[in-house]
Structure formats: C-alpha cells, structure tokens
Amino acid sequence: MKQTLKIFLHFFLIIFLTAITQIGGIVYLLFLVVIYFFKTKNILLKVGVFSMLYLFFIYVVVPPIARWKGREPVVTTENISPTNYMTVLLNRNYVVPEMNNLLLKAGKQLKGTRIKIKYLDACFPFVNGFPLLPHLSHNDGRKLDLSLVYENQEKKITDLQKSISGYGVYEEVKKEEWDQPAKCLEAGNFQYDFPQYLTFGRINKELEFSNSGNKKLINILLAQPNLGKLFIEPHLKQRLKLNHPKVRFHGCRAVRHDDHIHIQL
Ligand SMILES: [Zn+2]
Predict the structure, then answer these.
(1) 3-state secondary structure (DSSP) of residue 132
(2) What spacing in Å lies between the alpha carbon of 262 and ligand 1's midpoint?
(3) Domain residue spans in the chain?
(4) How far is CA 16 from the centre of its chain?
(5) Is 111 helix (H, G, I), strand (E, B) or coil?
(6) How many Cα neighbours within 13 Å face the side chain of 23?
(7) Residue 39: pLDDT band with limits 50, 70, 90
(8) HSE-up (13 A, CA, CB side) for residue 55
(9) How far is ligand 1, taken at its centre, from the CA of residue 174, in Å?
(10) How far is the CA of 30 from the centre of ligand 1 (A)?
(11) Is pLDDT at 134 greater than 90 in this prediction?
(12) What's the CA-to-centroid distance between 176 and ligand 1, angstroms?
C-alpha cells in the first residue's frame, strides 16, 4: 500500500512539474536516479539535490538547446524585465528571437520615459503545441503577456504592480464603458473571470491605472511591424481610444484582459 502511494506521488509530481515548468518532470526523474544511488533519506538533502539539478538545467542546459530549436529567454535590459522572477525560474520566459527584436525596439523607443516593459508569461522553451497552462495559446514562442502600467499617489508612472504574480487584479469597467466581462459571464463563460484566483496576493493597492502610460506603451508596441495582434479588454480599448486594427478582442472563451496585455507576432 505504502509503495503504491509512493509511486502515485512520484507520478503526480512528474505530471505537475511538467505542466508548470515543462522540464521539471524530466529533472525529477533524473533526481530519482541520483537519489537511488545515494540512498539518502534526509529530506533537506533531497530538496537540495533537486534544487541544484533544476537550477543547473534552467540556467545551463536548457538555454543552448532551446536556442538551437529556435527559442530564447525573453531579453532583460534596463527597461525590460520580468514582473515576477518566478516566470524565469519556472521556464515560462521563452520566445522566438523575433519577439525579442520587437521588445528591444519597443524598449529603445521607451527610453527617456518612466515606462518599463514588465513581462509575464511567455512560452516554454520547447515543442510547438505544448501549452503553457493556463494560457492555451502560448504554445509556439510567439505569444507574450505584459503588465499594465500604473501610477503612484504622486501621479508618477511606476513599474510596480498590483499583485504578486502580476495577474488577476482587474482594471474594472467604468459606468459609461462597454462591459464585456459581464457579457461573457452572462453567456456562461465562467472561466472568463478565472485570473482573479491567480494573484498570489494583492499588493500596492494605492496604484492607479495610467491612461497615458498604457496608451504610450501600447502605441509603441502597435507600431512594430512584426506585431500580429494585441489583446486588451474592450473597455480599456475604448478608454485609451485605441483604433488600430491590430488591437483585437480575444473572445469570451479566453480569460479577461484587463489585468494584463497580450501580444503575439
Ligand atoms: Zn497571453
């Protein structure tokens, strides 16, 4: 009985780690082999060995193989960085080089402003069609989520965010605006509101959505020729007066996009 439970637990961990990091399941298998030879029962040592192996993979093994297969980590510069470093640790920061070129150009055009490109989930390093849950479409290295831009109490643009994960705190619909979330929820698309459970904690409650900052960031992104589409919730499109044909509605079967911006090539 105990043995069956153990096997089930290993199996569950492999599936879970693969689902959230793509390579975590393979690293775990390797870890089981290492532990088998070391025969240690010390839990701290086990956690340490797994962590070392995992870090070695994500920093040393994965990047060159991913590059060879056509993807690379999202660039980090003085004005492009992850909102939460877990994105990098969980391997959710891989894109095709074309996306990095787009970001670098946009970053250059943002120099001299207070606006920073803060990225959220991109794609996994390998395999076209392997979805980065919960985003089913982030499966080809050509999709990337970005954080919204906020202002602090002094009305200054900041790169701080309103949740730990960067997701899930909505910039709600105002009275006179088109209420797409209500329409999607009424139509039975209950998943539309799902990101609210992914905040991992709300922070910086005093921050306010920056009309000028978001408009500037989005217009610079839209001006990049290799940008295919940009998704943002319709009421924000209306508020920011975005009329560009590349600004699209993602449909009610996705999740709402008033906590982040989605771009794709
Ligand atoms: Zn997205």
Answers:
(1) strand
(2) 4
(3) 2-68, 72-264
(4) 18
(5) coil
(6) 28
(7) confident
(8) 6
(9) 23
(10) 32
(11) no
(12) 27
Most confident of 57-66, 124-133, 186-195: 57-66
- The secondary structure element, H or E, covering residue 99 is helix 97-109
Secondary element (H or E) of residue 97: helix 97-109
Q: What tokens were used for 22?
A: 């793509």
Q: Does the structural domain 72-264 have CATH classification 3.30.1380.10?
A: yes
Average pLDDT over residues 44-68: 95
Which helix (DSSP H) or strand (DSSP E) does residue 65 occupy?
Answer: helix 62-68
Q: Can you tell me the mean pLDDT for 116-130?
A: 95
* C-alpha 226 chain-centroid distance: 20
Average pLDDT score over residue span 9-18: 94
Cα(65)–Cα(85) distance, integer angstroms: 21
Residue 132 scores a pLDDT above 90: no
User: What distance in Å separates the CA atoms of residue 101 and residue 206, rounded to the nearest whole number?
Assistant: 34
Q: Tell me the CA–centroid distance for residue 73 and ligand 1, in Å.
A: 16
Across the range 216-239, mean pLDDT stands at 96
- Distance in Å, CA 110 to ligand 1 centroid: 22
Total-model pTM: 0.91
Q: How far is the CA of 49 from the centre of ligand 1 (A)?
A: 33
Helix 24-38 vs helix 2-21: crossing angle, to nearest 10: 140
